[in-house]
Design brief:
The protein is α/β, with parallel strands linked by helices. It contains 10 helices and 8 strands. The protein has an 8-stranded parallel β-sheet with strand order 1-2-3-4-5-6-7-8, sandwiched between helices. Bound molecules: zinc ion. Zinc ion binds next to loops.
Length: about 270
């Protein structure tokens, strides 16, 4: 299995990230994509990926859109040249917390979509309470490959994203008896070739996990718990879903093909 989204640069992993990665591997999670949420954190993510044999993304989360400046996209472009960086993001819109003004969020979301398209890299997208604006932006920019990570929306939102060709990332939200029940039904409507699994560690500890982890920290070793919840919801064997979602992650992130070298991807200087 591959955890396509874990925030291992978070301070809660500072002292034991090697053990966390070892526990994940022991639980059958062969790799992890470390999420980049600011330019600085994306550098950190790429270094963690290099040190522990993982992968990383390079991007700015909508919460941090207000901190972007004229150098941000150039920095991300440079970080994306790291051989362990496999996607641009996480980027998108978050109209739930509204930590950054909407115009800033939209501007930097679009700039990162354009960067992903320019580099020919998949996009790791965040959308919270931002439908349908999020779909309108995707529709007008048409990234080649993108995942709506940590999908928590309703049926119309799911089908809009599927129609746009997006992959759908499911987290332990589906294990939440208070706010994730709708996902239990919806997961059956995700075509098997579009489903990806993730923990979004250290956030979103599955609420039905027993015992609950210390300090309520989620970690990639709990991905099989999410797999089992998805399998129950889909009415299919977990082994089958594990094989499919792993294959999807490899296809989505192009883990089987070596990336063209940085210089080959960069447009020629005028
Ligand atoms: Zn997110």
């Amino acid at each position: 299995m591959i955890d396509i989204g874990a925030n291992l640069t978070h301070s809660s992993f500072r002292d034991d990230v090697a053990e966390v990665v070892a526990r994940a591997r022991g639980a059958g999670v062969e790799s992890i994509v470390v999420t980049g949420t600011t330019a600085g954190e994306s550098v950190h993510a790429s270094l963690l990926a290099e040190e522990h044999g993982l992968y990383a993304t390079a991007g700015v989360h909508p919460h941090h859109a207000r901190e972007c400046d004229a150098h941000t996209i150039d920095r991300l472009r440079e970080i994306a040249q790291h051989p362990r960086v496999v996607a641009i993001g996480e980027c998108g819109l978050d109209f739930n917390r509204n930590y950054s003004p909407h115009p800033d969020q939209e501007r930097w979301f679009v700039a990162q979509l354009e960067l992903g398209i320019e580099l020919g890299m998949p996009l790791f997208l965040h959308s919270r309470d931002a439908y349908p604006r999020f779909s309108e932006i995707i529709r007008s920019h048409k990234p080649q490959k993108a995942v709506a990570h940590c999908f928590t929306g309703e049926k119309d939102e799911l089908h809009a994203y599927l129609d746009l060709g997006l992959y759908i990332g499911i987290t332990g939200w589906i294990c939440d008896e208070r706010r994730g029940q709708h996902l239990v039904k919806l997961v059956r409507e995700i075509p098997p070739e579009r489903l990806l699994l993730e923990t979004d560690s250290p956030y979103l500890v599955p609420r039905d996990l027993r015992p609950q982890p210390k300090a309520r920290r989620n970690e990639p070793a709990f991905l099989p718990h999410i797999l089992r919840a998805v399998a129950r919801a889909a009415g299919r064997p977990p082994e089958e879903i594990a094989a499919e979602t792993t294959r999807n992650a490899r296809d989505f992130l192009e883990l089987n093909e070596p990336r063209p070298s940085a210089s080959a991807q960069r447009p020629l200087a005028a």
